[in-house]
Structures are given as C-alpha cells and as structure tokens.
Amino acid sequence: MRRRELLLGVAGAAALSIAAASPAAAAWRQTDARERFAALVKESQKADDALNPLRLARRGQRPTGDVFIDPQGEAYARQFGTQKRAELNALSAIDRASLPEGDQIAYDVFRYQAEKAVEEIDSGLHAIRNKAPLNASFGLHVEFPDYMTSAQFKSVQDYELGLAQLEGFTAFMNDTVKRLEQGMAEGYHQPKIVVTNVLAQVEAFLALPVEDNPLYAPATRFPDAIGAADRTRLEAAYRKAVQDGAYPAYDQWRVFLRERYLPTATDGAGLWAMKDGARVYAADLVRHTTTTMSAEEIHRLGVSEVARIRAEMEESRKAAGFTGDLPAFFEHIRTEPSFYYTEPKDLIDHFERIEAKVWQRMPELFSRRPRAEFEVRPLPALGDQRGTGYYRSGPPDASEPGVLYFNMAMLNTRPIPTLETLALHEGVPGHHYQSSLVQEDESLPDLLRFRLAPATAYTEGWGLYAESLGKDLGLFTDPYQWFGHLDMEMLRAVRLVVDTGLHALRWDRQQAIDYMLANTSMAQRDVVVEIDRYITNAGQACAYKVGELKLQELRGRATQKLGDRFDIRHFHDQVLDTGALPLDVLEAKIDRWLAAAA
Q1: Do you find a cis peptide bond into 248, omega within 30 degrees of 0?
Q2: Fewest beta carbons within 10 Å, which of 52, 156, 337, 551?
C-alpha cells in the first residue's frame, strides 16, 4: 500500500508539473501577475495623487483629500519615501516575465521611477535641494500663478477649491523662507544671479494691482452658471486672499531675499560652488538624461556636435548668398528688422500657418492624429526670466487645447527663420503631438499616460527629433529657414557644452554667455536668459541632444535591420505608443520590436 501511495504521489506531481506547463496555466499566471501589477499601479497613482493634489487638479480632477501639499516639506519626503519603498517590495513579488509586453514596459518604468525616488530621498539629495530651492523657471512662486491663470473653474465648488489652494500656497511661500534660513545656517547658498532673477519676479508680482494679479484671475472670468450672489462673495474672497495672504507672503520673500539671502549668495554660477554641489549635479545629469554619462563625456559630445553643425551653418550661409563670414551672418540675423515681428498677432498667425502646412504631410510620417487642438498664447505675468516660453498640455479629454505660452516681450529677439523649427518642437509633431496622443490613449495605464518627470531626455529628445522632420513635412524651403533650423540645433549642442562647463568645469557666467554668442545667432538678451536658465536648472539642458541622438541612433538601427520593410510610421508608433520612457527602456523596446520583425 505504501508503494502504491508513493507511485500515486509521483504521478500526481508529474501531472501537476504538466498542468503547470500548459498554455492554460501560463495564461492563469499571466492574468494573476497582470491583475496584481495593475492593482499596484492603481494604488501607487492614488497615493501619488494624494501627495500631489495640484497636479491632479491640472488634469481636471478634484482632489479628495488635502487640496495643497508642500512638495518641499519634510512630511512629504517621509511619506513619499515610505510609499516608494513599499511599492518596490510589492513589485519584487510580481513575476515580470509573466506579464504581456506592454505591461513589462510599464513594470520597467514603474521600477525606474520608484528606485530613483528612493535614491533621491535616502541619499539626502531631496533635503539638500529643498534647502536651496529658488528657481526662476519652474519655482512654485511662478508655477502656481500660471495654474490660477489657466485653470478651468466651472462651479462654485471649483472656486472654493481654488481659494483653499491659494491658502495652501501662501503657507508654502512662508515656509520656503524658513527652509532658506535653514539652508543658510547649514552652508547651502545659491548663486547671486538666481537670487536676483527670483527677486525681480517677486517685485513684478507685488507691482501688479489685485485686478491684474494672476492669483485673482479666476474672479475675472465667472461662467454663466454661477449666480450674482456667489460671484460677489467669491470675488471678495479672492481679493482678500490676494491682498491679505499672497501679497504679504511675496513681500516677506522680497525683504528676506534682498536683505539677508542675497549678501550670502555665491559668486560662482554653477553647482560646483555650492556645498555638496558636485553630488547634486551628478544626480541631475542622471535624472534628466536617464543615462550614466558623466559631465566630461557630455561636454566632449557637445564640443563635437558644435563643430559638426557649424560646418553645416557655413554651407547654409553660402546658399543664402551672404558674402561675409559666419559671425557677420549671425549679426545680420540679429539686426535685420525684416526677420522680426512687432505684433503678437502676427506671430500667432504665423504659427497657425505652419501647423496647417505640416498637417498636410503628417500622414506620410505618422499614423495617428490626437483630438486636442494646439494654440499659441502670450506667456502669463512673471514670465520675463523664463525664456521664450513653454508648452503645457491640455486635459486628457481634449476639452481644452495644448498651449505654447510664448513670451511676447521677446518678439524682437526671436527671428522669423526659427519659427518653423520652434513650431515643430513645441507643436506638431513635437511636444503637443506626443503628449496629446499618450494622454488621450485610455488603454494605457496612468503610469505611462501622465508620469513624465523622469524622462526629460525622451520628451525633449523627441521635440528635437521632431525638428529634424521639417523637410519631410514641407518646411525649410529656403536657405534662411534652413539656417534657422541649424541655429536651433546648434543651441542644443551648445547647451551640452555650457551646462557642463558651468556646473562641473567651473566656467563663470560670462564665459558661458560668450560661448553661446560665438556659436549662435541668438540676441544678447536671449543668451543671458538661456544661460540663467541653465544655472537654475542644472542638467535639464543636456537632455535635448542626448535624447535626440538616441532616437536617431534607434531609427538608423531600424532602417538597417529592416531594409526595404522599414516604414517610418511604424517606427514612430513604437517610439510614441507607450509614453515617455527612460532611454534604456525605450531602446530595449525597439530592439524587441526589431527582433520580432526579423
């Protein structure tokens, strides 16, 4: 009997082994892994949204918990770190190999994001950044007013939410002064130019009457659904919040920055001059390029690209019939009045003509079209230190357009020959096209639809890659437009040199300005704004070229591998249909696609 039981046991185990290897069992394991991963991503998104209610509101969704959480506070860091460590533990229990390919990509992105977040907090870098948080380009002191200007408040509840957010923002402003004081006490000081640029923004804010203040903007555009009594009450509430809350908070910044912080600021323009700055910059390069390239490697790449593009510029100068040398051609572009618009409407009309022309040829290169429209609007107040402008996507339901906010104060420094390239980068097929496609794709998890922060090299690399498609899309038909394209590509190559020069090689601000003036046709004022942006946002400027070169490399690989079977539309689908990815995740995806097509 004992022998029979043993034989039955062996036979049963064999049967179970065979069953486990069957297609049905494999499908069950895949379903189980997929359901657990989907649940983990959903809970992660819910937790992230709870910690970032303002980001949730930007997507047109109402926060269910706190309406404003200080992203620089210690409580935020503790909670976020605990959350991400728990998510990594849960992720390790899910068999990646059991997931379908699309979910494997999401798995890789999820792990990448969580690991980088934990590294940032556990290494102390998050705390260091928050002790030196001034940022004229993307600081919340300018980002929140932008939000209040563009937010679509449609009900009394929306307006009440805005008031609560405004109260939280005022508290953030006050707490930032305390963090700056703590940073000073511990030896963390930012460059003088960063402080003076932020101070200029603060003073511009305080100079605005309440009625023109962006924080008051919701009270100037009530929808018809809100009655007179509620309008009167809400208008008074917004006026009081700005007068009694925001203005005193900004004034506290003004006094503190001018009298206490500026005298202690560093003369050096780069992170090398700040305590722990070298470590911060190394992390910035990893975060923005999603590679392990060192500052020295990136610098050498930039020098090489500058030389290559400069040679093409010489050929373009000759094609334009200009008899002087390249520096003289730069000066011609800077000073010829016919190269500049004087009225914002003329520039906006030009962008509309470019987009209409591009869409005629888009089906030759792309298989899809997003629902969201694209518009160009003037940059909101407090924008003079923020460069030419920036793109902001609309809500996922395409009820509002994606918008390029253009700094109309810089009309006289943005040459018309560069506008086709700028439209490609910011609009179609650049940022607007890429972000709208992925936001509107409800089959993707929110993880891939909305989380763009760790993939600057992808998003900006795609924008620069989109510029390279101009000739195929019917643009760059005269030598000056082509030179404008090269000029903007040169800008991105120069960025590799000056960003690493400023933050790692101890360049001073003037050295960086001189290098950019010598290699582009940009006006002095534009160059100064650009360099100050790199000083404030270390590493971000390196993402453009690093990302674009990787995309060109992958396209070349696909062309060589597929030969006559290569279809540019299919390649673009592969690059775009899973959202913004770290470059190594994107490369692995393209390699799998090519292997399957072999």
Answers
A1: no
A2: 337
